[in-house]
Amino acid sequence: MIKTGSRRLIEMHGFSNIHGYIPWLFFLPAFDTLYRHHTMEDKKQMHTIPVEFVRGIIGTDDIMKKRMPQIAFLGRSNVGKSSVINALLGRKNLVKSSATPGKTQEINFFLIEKKYYFVDLPGYGFARLPNKTREKLRKRIVWYLSEAERKPDFVFIILDAVVGETDHDRELLELLKTERIPFAIIVNKIDKLKKSSQKEHVQKICAGIEGTPCFPFSAKTKEGREAVWEEIQRHIAV
Ligand SMILES: Nc1nc2c(ncn2[C@@H]2O[C@H](COP(=O)(O)OP(=O)(O)OP(=O)(O)O)[C@@H](O)[C@H]2O)c(=O)[nH]1
Ligand SMILES: [Mg+2]
Question: Which residues lie with the beta carbon below 6 Å from any ligand 1 atom?
Answer without folding.
Answer: 75, 77-83, 97-99, 101-104, 122-123, 188-189, 191-192, 218-220
